[in-house]
Amino acid sequence: MKQFYLIAGLVLVMGLAQAQDLVSGFVKDDSGQSLPGATIVQKGTSKYAVSDPDGKFEIPAGKEVPFTIQVSLTGYQQQEVEIYELAAEPIDVVLKTANVLDQVVVIGYGTQKKGDLTGSVSSISTGDLKGVPISSLDRALQGRAAGVQVTQSSGQPGSSVSIKIRGGNSINGANEPLYVIDGFPVYNNNSYADAGVTNGPTINALSTLNPSDIESIDILKDASATAIYGSRGANGVVIITTKKGNAGKNVITYDGYYGVQKVLKTLPLLNAQQWALLKNDALADSKKAPAFSQAEIDSLGQPGVGTDWQDAAFRQAAIQNHSLSFSGGDDKTRFAVSGNYFKQDGILQNSDFERYSFRINLDRDMNKRFKLGINFSGSKSSANVAPENVVPNLLQMPPTMPIYDPNSANGFTLRSIYDSPLANPIATLYLQVNETHIFRGFGNAYGEYQIADGLKAKVSIGTDILLNKQNRYLPSTLQEGAGLGGQGIVGNKNTIGWLNENTLSYNKTFNQDHALDAVIGITQQASTTENTVARSATFVTDAFEYHNLGGGTTFQNASSNYFKWTLLSYLGRVNYTFRQKYNLTVTARADGSSRLGNDNKWGFFPSAALSWNLGREDFIKNIGEISNLKFRISGGITGNQEIAPYTSLAQEAYYSYLFGRKLVAGYAPNGIANPNLGWEQTAQYDAGLDLGFFKNRINVTLDAYYKKTSDLLLDVPLPYTSGYANAFQNYGAVENKGIELSVNTVNSEGELGWTTDFVFSTNKNKVLSLGPGVSQVISGNSIAQVGSPIGSFLVLKADGIFQTGDDIANLPKFLASDRAGSQRYVDISGPNGVPDGTITQAHDRVIVGNAQPKFLFGLTNNFNYKGFDLNVLLQGQSGNKVYNANQANLELGTGYINGSTTMLDRWTPTNPSNVIHRAIENPAVTVSDRFIEDGSYLRLKNLSLGYSLPAVLTGKIGISQLRIYVTAQNLVTWTKYTGYDPEVSRNEQATLTQGVDNGVYPASKTFLGGLTLTF
């Protein structure tokens, strides 16, 4: 013990002795205001400090004078200060505001100063994402970039989202952007994370990556910016750069949070007594005896009687995230290593998502000319997925049905006993196995050699390994598995891709007037996918679940699949700048794709752009209020090849035939070849204006664009005489045009800091053509029609309710049995194009709105005051419609299923409602404009309050920064939509059938607390 005290005393004395050799000072801007959060590094060492809310810092000398300290802060020019003696008085370090034009953004195959930029690029500050609970990086884009629409397709933890940049271009092809992660292009095809076994929302392949690793997000939108990616750039490009280490700055950071989630809202449904009355009314309408006596109805009205299925299904669910990172390096080596654990329990019972991940980024200067590097991440994700029909079942399950049955084999009621045999949704959630497991290894390695001054060669090779396993088991004691005697299914889908890129870049400034930045390259990429599914049924026991498929006595068809695609590309780009005023960019890329026809595999994608920095002209730069003024114009062509491999080839399929009494197997043609199938091409034109006022305290970016996508990759119906149903052809054209506005303001500086970011965008989509003789493509109740937007709704128009006294016999009817209390519809036309007195789906449906919003917006405010920081994000959209299929089912009024409380106002002889029809035993939904609702909304998306302890306190315990915070997400939503959430897309990434709400897993609101600790 004495030795311990002696050692502790010596350490304390040595620490005090060393603490006396300090460099202290204040960091200020050129107006004298204190600058908190500046980083002060002793050059060539790992010693650093961070300025406190008063701008004060203290950094140990650690070595003899003279030495240099580097002071840096985002938005300011880095300053180096030579220290020749350790003075007792603090020093003042003045940082000058960085010129907006000198800020660097990441573009394809390089970086560029904003002042030299000719294309339309949006950058997202990752500082706004601190403490925001997101499972995947694509969710970080919502409300933060103009022209980017992010739609959450499901509230299932880890599920996919739909992203469209400047509208949807394709009908049957893909509309999602290309992601480039540390130089590796990835198209987020979520089918690679779906082995075809799990029933319910697809898990997002991007959720395997840790959002905490992101350093920057840059979104390339116009053809000038995206043409370098050619066939991959038609839908925009999102460039993700992960965090790297910095020389002389070794940092350890922990960031973690824990919170709870709950459903945004529940839907108002009939209670047990109200539903019993509805059931009796429906039976009476069919001249049947009542199901409930008056005494039974009276007893159902007692408190606590009846089942609230929503209350039983939804729960308060936990969410947590823990990230630990190490970064640093010396003059030759920089490294960043991180590990992450993320767990999100779903608000529906027994649903969740869990991820373990790690990342390593390493760069090494082998000598003055040669550099090596590696970026690699690995993750293991697992999800218990809520089965697809759970939400419709819990809404439709009659409230008179109990959840539990002590006499059943599993303790749960099997199903509804009323007409519609709905499975018990609570039993489904707890007892059905429905899980997805994903392992992803993703990364690349590169070597870069400087051949001469400004001339560099770079070779990189990378891989993306996605291994997906899905398990499903339906016990024989569940309604879903009872008829099968139990069913087990196991599936594997393994995708392995590789990429090789070889580029030669040249960057040189001549005579200070001419600057040239050029790159040429050859890239090749390939991907192979294998899929196997095995299934079996009729098990003696459910104890082994899916682990013993051989125990099933009924073997079902197994399946396997294999496909491969390759892409070979040649690319080139030249950026030329004259006197830092006039900028020209010319880009070209040629792509050859194995997915397209033999006669049309190659596509050429050129673009050109000009920008003029008027703010550097003498007649502008003398105007003190204007600090930046630039005009941009661009045009070019990009492509889309995202269709299934082998689509252009003639295909054969397995068939079995019964000849006599013997089953014979064989193959027969199943698809027609199209050797001319070529690229879907998007021509895009953009004009932009960048404005800065009052020393860049106000920055405005305005863009107007026009896109025309032609030679659509369209799945076209074929004549029956061909023997085939359909085939992909290059038919049709779609246009998108719109305006984007971004405004960034510095409202207050100094002790109270306040900045605002506002984004606003409009997009108008229209189908221009669908090929020879085709005017429309219909899928269910959605339509793509020439002259209308993709994803329009085709429905009947409701016209009130037939009333007693109406001349119903002579009025247009949908059903021959229609009478007083039945729904009326508008007679639009008949076979001859004029009203014919009858209502039919073929002739009387009309387009009523569409799922595409007229405009999107986001407003972010950041406040800083004496260590406190507050981030507020408002986000929303307006003008889109949603087909509320849930409500259509809940207003059937059949008594087979539960109903909405709107049915309390249903038509009866004593309540002649002109809105809600009478109770009737007709279980068929008639889709009308009554269920097409306004999907506009305004949402308080994120509210985060943090506090950073003063450096004078954290420094005493060896901590560089300690920040604690609380965050609320989806706190309030203002909308007229009556469903769970207006932000809904039943069909995930589909374009034609978007905006349908048919039992989607609801979204949640989240409350959490966390801390960030940096050493």
Could you characterize the architecture of this molecule?
With 1015 residues, the protein is mainly β. 8% of the residues lie in helices and 48% in strands. It contains 12 helices and 52 strands. The protein has a 22-stranded antiparallel beta barrel. Strand 37 (733-748) and strand 38 (752-769) form a beta hairpin. It is globular. The model is unreliable at 1-20 (pLDDT under 50).
Report low-confidence residues grouped into runs of 5 or more.
1-20
Give the beta-strand count. 52
| Estimated structural class | mainly beta
Number of alpha- plus pi-helical segments: 12
* Distance, first to last CA: 30 Å
**Alpha-carbon Rg, integer:** 32 Å
Tell me roughly what share of residues is in helical segments.
Answer: under 10%
Mean pLDDT: 87
- What overall geometry do the principal axes of the alpha carbons give? globular
Strand content: over 45%
Q: Keywords for this structure?
A:
48% strand, 22-stranded antiparallel β-barrel, mainly beta, 8% helix, 52 strands, disordered N terminus, five-stranded mixed sheet, 1015 residues
Blueprint (SSEs and pairs):
Blueprint: H1 2-19, E1 22-29, E2 39-42, E3 48-50, E4 56-60, E5 67-72, E6 79-83, E7 91-95, E8 104-107, E9 110-113, E10 121-124, E11 148-152, E12 161-165, E13 178-181, E14 184-187, E15 214-220, H2 223-226, E16 237-242, E17 251-263, H3 272-285, H4 294-300, H5 309-313, E18 317-329, E19 333-345, E20 352-365, E21 370-384, H6 390-396, H7 425-431, E22 433-452, E23 455-474, H8 479-482, E24 487-510, E25 514-539, E26 552-555, E27 559-578, E28 582-593, E29 602-613, H9 618-621, E30 626-640, E31 651-659, E32 662-671, E33 680-693, E34 698-710, E35 713-717, E36 726-730, E37 733-748, E38 752-769, E39 776-779, E40 782-785, E41 792-795, E42 798-801, E43 823-825, H10 841-844, E44 846-850, E45 855-865, E46 868-878, E47 881-884, H11 885-890, E48 932-934, E49 937-948, H12 951-954, E50 961-975, E51 996-997, E52 1004-1014
Parallel strand pairs: 1-7, 13-16, 47-51
Antiparallel strand pairs: 1-4, 2-3, 2-5, 5-6, 8-9, 10-15, 11-12, 13-14, 15-16, 17-18, 17-52, 18-19, 19-20, 20-21, 21-22, 22-23, 23-24, 24-25, 25-26, 25-27, 27-28, 28-29, 29-30, 30-33, 31-32, 33-34, 34-37, 35-36, 37-38, 38-45, 39-40, 40-41, 41-44, 42-43, 45-46, 46-49, 47-48, 49-50, 50-52
Helix pairs in contact: 3-4, 6-7
